[in-house]
């Protein structure tokens, strides 16, 4: 089954009154969600990981220094306030997807605020909808997604994610080189000298996923598995239709609905379906 795709290159189309733009890509109907508003980084408090995610007290491998970002065993990342019992907001993004960059600009500030305050458990699920397209699009997408997972291993997913969207190359242009992605680590606050070597392992694995037989393990492999997994996770009205995709307790929602915050607050507490790495 081919992956749903974000819209083709060029400026993202304007949103309709429903906040959705419908486009035809590779012969299938997909949803392309776009908007533009400035985003920002938030300072994060310390403490142990969120209740229900299994995060250890304090920082550690796959946990941010403040304990709020917790890498999961499938390569996804949970951001939540310690002890939070709140709705689970899943966010599916491809770092090469222009619509995802616009979504990030529009909604990331809200998501980070709600994660920190305990109003939501935000579950970031990087995917690669371009992986099976081959060529530059696939290479950029898989390298960036794998690099984001590696950054999460070092406790700096959110900071690294911001930089990836800032540096997103235009569709069809080569970008997200291993050298650039390694340099972004220091900017994101990763000072571990082992980061560049660990990242290079995953850059080689990303190349194998796109152009070779596949890596079979690691962050690049987890990214591909996550993309396949979302196709099977939801069906019917909630079927995955492309990136960005947002779900509240497993129910698909329009990320650009004017009452997104209210809809999150109105939802019952949810459960994270993965376990920490």
Number of helices: 7
Stated plainly, the CATH topology is called: Glutaredoxin
Question: Biggest sheet, strands in spatial order?
Answer: 3-4-6-5-7-8
Order of helices and strands: EEEEEHEHHHHHEEH
Describe the biggest sheet? 6 strands, mixed
Assign the CATH architecture: 3-Layer(aba) Sandwich
The count of β-strands is 8
| Poorly predicted ranges | 7-59
Percent helix: 25-40%
Overall spatial form: globular
Spell out the key features of this protein.
alpha+beta; 6-stranded mixed β-sheet; 277 residues; two-stranded antiparallel sheet; 36% helix; globular; Glutaredoxin; 8 strands; single chain
SSE diagram, text form:
Elements: E1 21-25, E2 28-32, E3 69-71, E4 77-79, E5 88-93, H1 98-117, E6 121-126, H2 135-153, H3 157-166, H4 178-187, H5 195-211, H6 218-233, E7 245-248, E8 251-253, H7 260-266
Parallel strand pairs: 5-6
Antiparallel strand pairs: 1-2, 3-4, 4-6, 5-7, 7-8
Q: Please, could you describe this protein's structure?
A:
By secondary structure, this protein is an alpha+beta fold. It has a single domain (21-266), classed as Glutaredoxin (3-Layer(aba) Sandwich), CATH 3.40.30.10. The chain contains seven helices and eight strands. The protein has helices at 98-117, 135-153, 157-166, 178-187, 195-211, 218-233, 260-266, and strands at residues 21-25, 28-32, 69-71, 77-79, 88-93, 121-126, 245-248, 251-253. A six-stranded mixed sheet has the order 3-4-6-5-7-8, sandwiched between helices. A two-stranded antiparallel ribbon has the order 1-2. The protein is globular, with a radius of gyration of 17 Å. The model is unreliable at 7-59 (pLDDT under 50).
């Amino acid at each position: 089954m081919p992956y749903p795709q974000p819209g083709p290159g060029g400026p993202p189309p304007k949103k309709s009154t429903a906040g959705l733009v419908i486009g035809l890509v590779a012969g299938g109907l997909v949803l392309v969600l776009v908007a533009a508003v400035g985003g920002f980084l938030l300072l994060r408090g310390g403490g142990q990981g969120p209740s229900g995610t299994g995060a250890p007290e304090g920082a550690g491998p796959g946990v941010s220094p403040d304990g709020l970002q917790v890498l999961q065993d499938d390569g996804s990342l949970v951001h939540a306030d310690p002890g939070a019992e709140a709705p689970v907001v899943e966010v599916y993004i491809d770092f090469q997807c222009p619509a995802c960059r616009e979504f990030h600009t529009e909604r990331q500030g809200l998501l980070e605020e709600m994660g920190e305050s305990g109003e939501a458990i935000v579950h970031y699920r990087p995917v690669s909808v371009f992986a099976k397209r081959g060529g530059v699009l696939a290479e950029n997408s898989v390298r960036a997604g794998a690099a984001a997972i590696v950054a999460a291993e070092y406790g700096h997913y959110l900071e690294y994610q911001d930089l990836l969207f800032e540096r997103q190359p235009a569709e069809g242009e080569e970008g997200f080189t291993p050298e650039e992605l390694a340099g972004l680590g220091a900017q994101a606050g990763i000072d571990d000298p082992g980061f560049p070597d660990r990242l290079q392992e995953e850059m080689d694995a990303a190349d194998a996923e796109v152009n070779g037989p596949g890596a079979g393990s690691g962050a690049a492999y987890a990214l591909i598995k996550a993309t396949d997994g979302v196709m099977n996770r939801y069906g019917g009205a909630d079927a995955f239709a492309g990136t960005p995709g947002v779900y509240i307790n497993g129910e698909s929602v329009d990320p650009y609905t004017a009452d997104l915050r209210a809809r999150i607050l109105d939802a019952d507490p949810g459960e994270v379906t993965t376990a920490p790495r």
